Amino acid sequence: MNVIPLARLLLGSWLVLTVASARTEFTVAALKVMPAAGDSAANFARFETYARQAAAAGADLIVTPECYLDGYMGSAKFRPGMTRETVLRSHTETITGPTLRKVSALARELKVHVLFGFSERRGDGLFNTVALFGPEGTLIGRYSKSHPLPGEFYDPGGELPVFDTALGRMGVLICFDRQPPENARILALKGAQFIVVPAFGRIREPMDEDVMMQSRAHENGVCILYVSQHNAFVADPDGVITDQARSDTRDMLMFGRVVLDERIHDRSSYRVRHPELYRPLLEPHPVGKSPPP
Q1: Which architecture, in CATH terms, is 23-274?
Q2: What are the extents of the domains in the chain?
Q3: Which own/partner pairs from 4-10 qualify as long-range (CB within 8 Å, at least 24 positions apart)?
Q4: Helix axes 98-110, 40-56, angle to 10 degrees
Q5: Predicted TM-score (pTM) of this structure
Q6: CA distance linking residue 30 with residue 214, whole number of Å
């Protein structure tokens, strides 16, 4: 029987807990699909078509790119002339809104897990959110992007949760969240066995996507599922990409197999740590550096 270390930060020290694990496997279907800008109805219709195809092919988890429902309207970079007020008024939905209820019903009908990206209206707040539904249609949880960039209208999410699912313990990062290495490490230390990374953007060099995610998988001993409109892949706990679809123009489903076995968290860089040296990580900005405008 394998043992997975779980941990939580206690005033600069780590308390290590243990739980038993067994090998599990599941199939993910990633929508490597370019959504229509500002057309939520069309985007949901396409999602439903792809979701039915994915479930018929045996998918256990279906994942969309970042802000799939609205087509990523909350960015002045990608949507020149857009304002926060317009996004809030015309391109958002609440977590219990009509389209999210349809996603819930579809997850229940198809008996699959769904991770669905949308621009969320929460009171006066605007968040870049993914909602996680279980195969009974229940909302397991949501994650909001914690590191929005300058030029994005989104408020930062305030937590890095790990979700217990029938597939395993899932962490989520959205797009730029993948770049600060602390985010993936915290999820792993909280017990995440696999991390899903929905993203959106222009086609990137492999260093910014493939290699970076391979490194995050390898250094933390977790599986990584990366999903954007241009590139989708699975990296195993050894940092090896096992399944991938990469294309600028062709929309498709990427099917991948995720294997959670004795390699999860079995990495010296994960197990051999000295948190007493890491206090500079708590400083808001590096020495001599100011925050971005």
Answers
A1: 4-Layer Sandwich (3.60)
A2: 23-274
A3: 4/191, 4/193, 4/264, 4/265, 5/265, 5/270, 5/271, 6/189, 6/190, 6/191, 7/189, 7/190, 7/191, 8/189, 8/190, 9/189, 9/275
A4: 10
A5: 0.90
A6: 17
Question: CA-CA distance, 287 to 96, in Å (whole number)?
Answer: 43
Tokens standing for residue 265 = 């968290």
Bridge partners, 227 (sequence order) = 198, 232
| Catalytic residue IDs | 66, 145, 175
Return the number of other C-beta atoms located less than 10 Å from residue 133's C-beta.
Answer: 24
> What's the rounded Cα separation, in Å, for the pair 3 and 265?
9
Residues 176-187 have pLDDT tens digits of 999 999 999 999
Q: Is 284 exposed, middle or buried (0-12, 13-18, 19+ CB in 10 A)?
A: exposed
Residue 17 pLDDT level (bands cut at 50, 70, 90): very low
Mean local confidence (pLDDT), 35-42 = 97
Which position has the token pair 């008024």? 89
β-bridge pairing 113-122 and 61-63: parallel
